[in-house]
Design brief:
The complex is a heterodimer of chains A (about 475) and B (about 450).
Chain A (H helix, E strand, L loop, with lengths): L7 H11 L4 E2 L2 H5 L15 E3 L4 H14 L3 E4 L16 E4 L6 E5 L4 E5 L4 H8 L4 E2 L12 H7 L6 H4 L6 E7 L5 E5 L9 H5 L8 E8 L1 E2 L3 E9 L2 H13 L6 E6 H11 L9 E9 L1 H17 L4 E4 L3 H12 L1 H4 L6 E4 L2 E2 L5 H14 L3 E7 L4 E8 L4 H20 L18 H4 L2 H14 L30
Parallel strand pairs in A: 2-4, 3-4
Antiparallel strand pairs in A: 1-2, 5-6, 6-10, 7-11, 8-9, 8-10, 12-14, 12-15, 13-14, 13-18, 16-19, 17-19, 18-19
Helix pairs in contact in A: 1-3, 8-10, 8-13, 9-11, 13-14
Chain B lengths: L6 H10 L5 E3 L5 E2 L2 E2 L2 E3 L4 H14 L3 E4 L16 E4 L8 E3 L4 E5 L4 H9 L3 E2 L12 H7 L6 H4 L6 E8 L4 E5 L11 H5 L7 E9 L1 E2 L3 E8 L3 H13 L6 E8 L16 E8 L1 H15 L5 E3 L5 H8 E8 L2 H15 L5 E6 L4 E8 L15 H15 L5 E6 L4 H4 L10 H11 L15
Parallel strand pairs in B: 4-6, 5-6
Antiparallel strand pairs in B: 1-4, 2-3, 7-8, 8-12, 9-13, 10-11, 10-12, 14-16, 14-17, 15-16, 15-19, 18-20, 18-21, 19-20
Helix pairs in contact in B: 1-2, 10-11
Classes of the chains: A alpha+beta (about 475), B alpha+beta (about 450).
Bound molecules: flavin-adenine dinucleotide.
Chain lengths: ~475, ~450
């Protein structure tokens, strides 16, 4: 699908303001912008703007607003729910030229960075001061802070440290009419937490141009353990047992046999060939505490039938273990031509149930489903494997994915823990919230975005006409 | 129905809220200097809804009250027809320790919650002032800062989901029951900290945390503010993360008559550490090294300094600055207030907030007229002076409690929040008639 061409006068004005570097047109240049990590649908923008400063951003948005033209913000495009799909949206506005570090303030444990700064670079900036930025999505080497705030991203270490919103101190926001706001989350303002509200709003309330982020002390000691189980059920029970023992690990991640097979082939960590599931358990804090906690973890895992428990003390071994986990999605291509990632949440204690339900759904739809999970948070990422040349199988993948998310809701969970609703899951919103709550959400959006020019058709169900559904090759992860 | 509610509105109120327990307000049930004529105490969502709907159709202004611990920390409402108490909305506690989650009525107090959680080895680790009185709904609505926010963040960080009724009578269920959830707009963020001016919170789903094996409160006397600045720096640079890092400073002439010990005016550093036994030993040894002295007091119990600060002073302000500037600004505050009598300053070293207690409350037993303190005019002048000084520190000073007359002279809020225009529109959407705490927030929100 393509969007209609824009008024030449407007394009000229934008080009004059942004320069050649700041404005992309033409087939070849626009191709990369036709989808994000959610590739089931594609749409090409007519124009991509890359403002380099807040002022340029604000002026661009103001011009588009005056002309009544819809636009969509984009960071690195690693989103996996089609949040920055330009469906019926002529203009895309990227933040890739807004990468300045505005302030590193060690004494106050905070940094202010522009929206286009990559997540991992924030930690690189301050690690020599013994600090880090805690939210660590698996895509952290590519995804941007603007995208993280827009998605309220999590990551393996959010079990102990919380998600993006828990580390956000303030935002600079360009409203859909071009006005620039400096929103602080400090106490005692006598107003509402607008920066908090914008977090997780998937680019529909304005464009974030910078964020002030809280920094966290890098722990004195870290213990990373690998526990091997006969199957996913036993591993899920071990997760519950660890939580029940009163431990809050920094991370508690699970991979099942299919995922292990793929990552072993890709990275050669040395997972046992017959492992039914593994848990990666990371404890951190004071060295004085860790040995005792490792003993407790070992006991909990043994009680649930772990066949092997290893502590990765060597930093290289630890790094390889995390690489195996964080890059697991990249390895999946070895198992199947395509796969589709879902992102549901269940109460931690319901992991064994959802795992059984996923197995059932896989059998019912005759699909292979691999499981990777932020298990400690109850956040599951089932990967539905398929062959894109088999349209009938594609249809089964979509139905099975929906059934898994509905099963999460039935178990008291949510249809998304970190990937967002985007364009992908808008139909699941009425299953998640009642009409009054949906109406309140619509109110919120209309206040910020009254003319629906900023990233329309996302989050809330709308009567958008269908975009072309291309041959799927969904990837993405968590 | 009492006399002040006479006339058509009173009758309509009585008719619309029939069956909802109602009574006259007690003289001490004031908010920002005003007394409400009537207190309604709905016992469930349905009764609450009938109160909201009646207020809506009759155009009655209502203020929500929980435990009544933070009723003075905002401007007086433009109108006040009734006080709506949420204390009746306690109800069943649904604790799910294996999920580290609890669901509870908004009218329950934090102490009630923690008592219910104790058996399962869980807790909500925040320690606001007057936790036995403050309700969870109120704590979330006010987003009260705690001493243990150093270790655990704010109340808004604890909320996973909530039920609420907004000013247009909509029954909202926002957020969820699980620890991670990004489905839809996060209305929890909008309501947490909105101080009852958009919606009335009826039920909360909160994160819980395992109780530590052991915990200790340690108190250190420091030589002076310079020593406190150094102590803060070395604590921050160390591997330690005390869950509480507070500095308490007393000063001015002591009008309460108690004879202070020699150290009375030296800053008191209060730390609370938690963990397993070996962790606690390690932390104590390291603290001795870092601070160069042993604590003069040590206790298993959490300290009650925050409570007493709330109870002992007639005028309470809060200064908000960057953490690194907080002690410098507190010093400046001390210089400006000390001539006018005794004072107490409590600085949360991590958040950079300083609670300022002025005008000691006369001891009840004494039964004599209060010692002559500042007049309301002098208080207003002092506040203006503090706000002027705050400018140099990029700080703000807000009023949290004051004698009634002061509310007529000052704005409790210091300046206007960015995005006030959007906030006003949000207020219109969620409370179209303006029945919920009209005018209590900044900029007349
Ligand atoms: C391999 C892989 C692993 C992943 N792992 C995780 C994980 O562990 N945890 C997790 O939470 N997510 C994960 N994700 C999802 C994704 O990386 C995150 O959602 C990330 O925050 C998106 O950042 P981005 O810069 O790529 O944003 P984009 O994809 O460019 O945009 C995402 C959304 O944010 C909006 N947006 C972007 N920038 C701005 C801005 N400046 N202002 C306003 N709106 C904006 C867009 O319109 C869009 O709706 C993973 C994705 C992949 C491909």
């Amino acid at each position: 699908m393509s969007n209609p061409p824009l008024d030449a006068g407007l394009v000229t004005r934008l080009r004059r303001m942004l320069g050649e570097e700041g404005l992309l047109t033409g087939e070849a240049a626009l191709r990369v912008y036709e989808c994000d990590g959610y590739t089931l649908e594609k749409a090409r923008p007519s124009l991509v703007l890359l403002p380099a400063t807040t002022q340029e951003m604000s002026r661009s948005v103001e011009l588009l607003h005056k002309a009544g033209i819809a636009f969509v913000p984009r960071g690195a495009g690693t989103g996996v729910s089609g949040g920055c799909l330009p469906a019926d949206i002529p203009v895309m506005i990227g933040t890739s030229r807004m990468q300045r570090i505005r302030r590193v303030d060690i004494d106050n444990r905070r940094v202010e960075v522009e929206a286009g700064v990559v997540n991992l670079d924030v930690t690189r900036l301050v690690e020599s001061d013994g600090l880090h930025y805690a939210p660590d999505p698996s895509s952290q080497a590519a995804c941007t802070i603007g995208g993280n705030v827009a998605e309220n991203s999590g990551g393996p270490h959010t079990l102990k440290y919380g998600v993006t919103v828990n580390h956000l101190l303030g935002l600079e926001l360009v409203l859909p009419d071009g006005e620039v706001l400096q929103l602080s989350r400090e106490a005692g303002s006598g107003g509402f937490d607008l920066a908090g509200v914008v977090t997780g709003s998937e680019g529909t309330l304005g464009i974030i141009t910078s964020a002030t982020l809280a920094l966290v002390k890098t722990p004195q000691a870290v213990a990373t353990m690998l526990a091997v189980f006969p199957g996913v059920l036993e591993a899920s029970r071990a997760v519950s047992a660890i939580i029940a023992a009163g431990l809050v690990p920094a991370a508690l991640e699970m991979m099942d046999a299919l995922v292990i097979e793929a990552v072993e082939a890709a990275y050669g960590f040395g997972f046992p060939a017959d492992a039914g599931a593994v848990l990666i358990i990371e404890l951190d804090g004071l060295a004085a505490a860790l040995d005792e906690q490792c003993v407790q973890v070992t006991e909990a895992c043994n009680e649930q039938g772990a066949s092997e428990i290893r502590r990765a003390d060597d930093p290289r071994e630890r790094a390889l273990l995390w690489k195996s986990r964080k890059r697991a999605f990249g390895a999946m291509g070895r198992l199947s031509p395509s796969y589709c990632t879902q992102d549901g949440v269940v109460p931690r204690s319901a992991l064994p149930q959802i795992v059984e339900r996923i197995g059932e759904i896989g059998r019912r739809y005759k699909l292979r489903i691999a499981n990777i999970m932020h298990a400690g948070d109850g956040n599951i990422h089932p990967l539905l494997l398929y062959d894109e040349n088999d349209p009938e199988e594609v249809a089964r993948v979509l139905d099975a994915g929906r059934d898994i998310l509905l099963a999460c809701l039935e178990l008291g969970g949510s249809v998304t823990g970190e990937h967002g609703i985007g364009i992908e899951k808008t139909e699941l919103m009425p299953a998640s919230f009642g009409p009054a709550t949906l109406a309140a959400m619509a109110d919120l959006r209309e206040v910020f975005n009254p003319r629906a020019l900023c990233n329309p058709h996302k989050i809330l169900p709308s009567d958008r006409h269908c975009v072309e559904v291309t041959r799927p090759r969904p990837r993405g992860g968590g | 129905m009492q006399e002040s509610q006479s006339g058509a509105r009173g009758a309509a109120l009585a008719a619309g809220t029939e069956g909802v327990p109602s009574r006259d307000a007690r003289p001490d049930e004031t908010l920002s200097g005003l007394t409400a004529p009537t207190v309604l105490s709905p016992r469930d969502q349905q009764e609450l809804l009938s109160c909201v709907n009646t207020a809506r159709s009759e155009g009655l202004a209502l203020v929500v009250t929980g435990g009544g611990t933070a009723m003075d920390a905002a401007n007086p409402p433009r109108a006040l027809d009734l006080l709506l108490s949420t204390r009746g909305l306690g109800g069943r506690v649904d604790a799910r320790p294996n999920d580290m989650v609890v669901t509870i009525g908004a009218g329950a107090t934090l102490t009630e919650l923690n008592r219910a959680l104790a058996a399962s080895g869980q807790r909500l680790p925040l320690d606001p002032p007057l936790a036995g009185q403050a309700t969870l709904g109120g704590l979330v609505a006010a987003d009260t800062t705690c001493s243990s926010s150093a270790g655990f963040g704010c109340f808004r960080d604890m909320v996973l989901g909530l039920n609420a009724i907004d000013g247009s009578g909509r029954e909202l269920t926002v957020g969820g029951q699980v620890v991670k959830n990004v489905a839809g707009y996060d209305l929890v963020r909008l309501l947490a900290g909105s101080k009852g001016s958009l919606a009335i919170i009826t039920q909360l789903t909160l994160r819980t945390f395992p109780r530590p094996v052991a915990a200790l409160t340690l108190q250190y006397r420091l030589a002076d503010t310079a020593a406190a600045v150094a102590a803060r720096a070395s604590l921050l640079d160390s591997e330690l993360s005390p869950v509480m890092m507070d500095l308490l400073q007393d000063g001015g002439k002591d009008s309460s008559g108690s004879s202070p010990d020699n150290d009375h005016e030296r800053p008191l550093l209060l730390l609370r550490i938690e963990g397993g036994n070996s962790e606690l030993d390690y932390q104590q040894a390291r603290l001795r090294e870092l601070l160069g002295c042993a604590p003069f007091a040590r206790s298993d119990n959490p300290p009650d300094h925050h409570d007493t600060l709330h109870q002992d002073w007639l005028l309470r302000l809060r200064a908000i600055s960057m953490p690194g500037q907080a002690l410098a600004f507190a010093d400046r505050v001390a210089t400006l207030v000390k001539a006018g009598g005794s004072y107490q300053l409590l600085t949360h070293l991590c958040s950079g907030e300083t609670v300022i207690g002025l005008e000691p409350r006369p001891p009840v037993a004494a039964g004599q007229a209060p010692t002559s303190g500042r007049s309301p005019g002098e208080m207003a002048a002092l506040l203006a002076e503090l706000r002027q000084a705050a400018f140099d520190y990029k700080a703000r000073v807000v009023v949290e409690q004051a004698p009634a007359e002061l509310y007529e002279l000052v704005d409790c809020w210091h300046g206007r929040p960015a995005g006030l225009g959007l906030m006003r529109q949000l207020k219109k959407r969620f409370d179209p008639v303006g029945i919920l705490s009209p005018g209590r927030l900044a900029g007349g929100l």
